[in-house]
Structure formats: structure tokens, C-alpha cells
Amino acid sequence: MKKKAILLLIAIMVIGLLSACGGSSSGSSAAPAEENKDDRELVMTITKDLTTLDPFKCTGSSSWRVCRSIYDCPWVFDDAGNIHYRACTAYEFSEDGKSMTVTLRDGLKFENGEQITVEDLAYTIEKCKEGPITTTWANYVTDEEVIDDHTLKINLDRVYAPLALSMQDVTIVPKAAHEAAGGDFGYEPVCSGPYVLDEYKVGDSVSMKANENFTYQEVGVKHVKYKLIAEPATVSAALQNGEVQYTSNYAKTDFDTLSKLEGMQVLENRERSYEFATYNVTIAPFDNADFRQAINYALDRQSMIDIVQEGDGYIEYNIWNDQVFGYKQMEGWPYNVDKAKEYLEKAGYPNGEGVPEQTIYCYGDTGAKEAQVIQDSLKAIGIDWPVEQVDMNFLWDGQTDGSIAFSVDGMGLGIDASEYATMLVTDGGFNSAWYSNPKVDELFDLASGTIDEQERKDYYGQIIDIEQEDAPYMVLYYEISKTLCTDELDLSEAKAYSYVYPQYLKWK
Q1: What gap in Å lies between CA 249 and CA 233, rounded to an integer?
Q2: How many CB atoms within 10 Å of residue 412?
Q3: Which parts of 63-211 are beta strand (E)?
Q4: Within a 13 Å sphere around the CA of 154, how many CA atoms are in the beta-carbon half?
Q5: How many helices and strands, by DSSP H and E, does the chain display?
Q6: pLDDT, tens digit, for every residue of 404-438?
Q7: pTM, entire model
């Protein structure tokens, strides 16, 4: 897994760099008679600080959330699989499936007024080969051919059926500016999307405003601020006093009170995102598949959902759920202490005797609660491991270099099983388990190499069967999010997506 935490660099390089646009009118003696809707700022929350705004280095969820708003993409698919064209207006596969021709929308501009060209699109696709989120599919691209000012042909070394879905992650950057910036583009981004960066305060907030050169679609909320608040109780207080107008990060125990506040509405989603425990399968005792089976059976997932999420979650054992193409129900590991002890003995650790000492690493309030439930579940089978709460970047670095063997994390990917290869193939960008199974690598390759949908489902089904035997991850639960937000927002477009970005919202 190639997660790189560079908050320190951001802190050094960003001070004074992006704040020039953030002039505040607080303290003015002249009060407007009525607030203009276009001037209202929507305050949302993030629980982690940014790592970078270079989309080809982006790993953290907060950074990627901002990137999806400040960079345009060819198109997006909603949760029902419907395509919504954005920077491009059409695509077509060749008869042999080894190339895709896309049509770039006319008149597109970057925030600096320069034209967005097919050369910029070609450059972006090529750079996707370096991105941890995009490298799995982008490496099938052999080259890009500029046909004319609006047409680009993407050539592949083989059929890659999910390419259209993968193109959602192509975040268009200006070739010249990106090359000129070297490694500093993430600190001085040139935006192509519905928003541009307005102000970034390290450890506090990131503000965006509508991109004046983004003209093919109206931006319904012109000013957005992501406020960094790590603790759910603090989010609850901020929502209650009006400092925040859109969030799902509040303390779950406060939902009944908060949802009844005047002017509040609820957006409920059954998520594809999930919480999971990841273990390095090259380190004892996790290198033993029977041990991994044991601790999966030992986990009381429903208790975790009740304790951590106040019941707002559901049990699913695989790393992709029934909202994803290629789903097959997994037998999984229903809570069974006796079966856990049986597998523990098969692993050579009867009643937990001789199990190597490990630590359960976690970050944040939610992660700490989850780690506590895991700790209690393991005690029931004779394993007593300590919990250590650490900084997010320490945890991710430890997953990357292999120094952390067991940790609690979260993940959320797309609507096709191919996108989850990044967690399971040998060189996957998010393979925090250090898992390697040549058969799984082969099956992902075969599934993406055919356009026959039933064949693809069969291949993914075989992968799920192998996961049942190998238990490369411990999925804790899937989330049911209940976003609380001001009833002044129109959520009609947002309801089509599990992951809601500001461009899907508008003021009433």
C-alpha cells in the first residue's frame, strides 16, 4: 500500500500561499438588509486533515473529497449505474475492446482561463499510472492518440471491461502547469472543476468557492468550507449552535436530539464504505490462515455496530457489498466463540497459548471504540493485546512500510468489483494486508479482460470463495449514514449518490 502522509510539508509550504483570496468581512459596520443566497457559505466537516491536493499522490479521504470538487472528470456514474457526462460528452469502445474514443466538451477552461485541451486529458490519464487510486487500471493504457481538438483515443494492451467506470477517477489537470510545478502542484493546484481552492488553514479548515470558468453546469452552492473536527461530540455541538450545516460525523448518541432541531433534515444512505481491521499477513500470527479465521469468528460484529454506531450499520463480510457489480454472498464468519477456539487450536495456539504479542493500532474516536470491541472479543478466546491510539499518518505509514501488523481503518470504493483489486492484488495500491495470491491476481485479470457480464461475475465469485478461505481482511461492518443538514438545502440530486460532494447540492 502506498499511502504517504505529508502534512508536515503542507504545513511548511502552504502558509501564506493560499489565503490571499480569503478576505473576511466580519466586523463591518454596514450590515446587508438580506443575505444573498450566492453569498451563503455551507460548512461541512472532515475528520482528517489534507495530505495533498495533487490527485496523483492523493490517498487520504479528506484530500480526495476536495480533489473531486476542484478537478473535473470525464463523467460520473450514480449508484444506479446511470452515466452523467461532465468534461466529456461521449465515449465509444472499439470492436475489439482494446481502445476507447472519448469526446471532450467544447469551451472548457481551467481556473486561470486557459483552455482545457485533449492534450491535458491525455497527460492526466498517463499520470494516473502513478496514483495509488488509479494505478490498477491505468497501467493497462499503452498510449493516448490525439485525433483532433475534441477527440482522444485511449489504447489498451488488452480488453479492460471496467474502463468506463474507472474514468470517473481521471481528475483533469493542466499539463504545462503540472509539469512546471514539479512536486509542488499539490500546494498550488490549478483547478478544472466546479470549485477552486479559496483558503487552506492547516489543521483547521479548507475553503472552496465556485469556479468562474466552470460554465457548463450551475454550481448551486457557491461557497463551501470543510471544517476539520475530529471528535464527534465537538461536531454535535457545532451542528447544534449553527457553526456546521452538513455532517454525518456527529456523535451517534446525539442523533435523536439533533434531528429534531428546527430547520434540520436527514439524508440517509446505506453505504458502500466500511470499517475493517487490516493485518499484515507476512507477520506472525497473521501469516497463519487458521489464526485469521479464528479472530474473524471471535468478533462480535453486532455488538460493535450497537456500541460504535448506535445500531446504524449492517454486517457484510466481504470488502464489497451487494451494491457492487460482482457481488456474491459470502458465508463469512458469524460470531461463534467455540468455532474461533477450534481454529485457534488448529493454528497451533490452543486457548491463545503462545500467540505472539501484537498491538491493535487505531486512530480517532471511532477507531478507538472499534479497537476496544476487538480487544474484548479476543480476550474471550485467550488473546490479550493492548490498544494504542495513534496519529492517522503514523498508522498509514506503518501499514505502508509493514511496521504495523494489526490496525483498524476504513475504506470505500466504487460500484464495480474491479475497483477492489487495489486491496487484493499483489501490488495493489491499497493492499494494506500485504496479501499475495497468484490465483486472485489471475482472476482479477480475467474478470477485467472480458466484456461478458456473467463471466465477470463468475470470476469475482471465485475471488470471494478464496477470500473465505484466506480471510485477508476482517471487515467489521458497513455503515448506514444519516447525514444531518440544514433544510435550506435541496438534496434531490444528492440522493442518487452514496458519496455526496458539494456540487450535488444547491440552496433552495
Answers
A1: 9
A2: 13
A3: 75-77, 83-85, 88-93, 99-104, 141-148, 151-156, 195-201, 205-210
A4: 30
A5: 16, 19
A6: 999 999 988 888 898 899 999 998 888 999 999 99
A7: 0.73
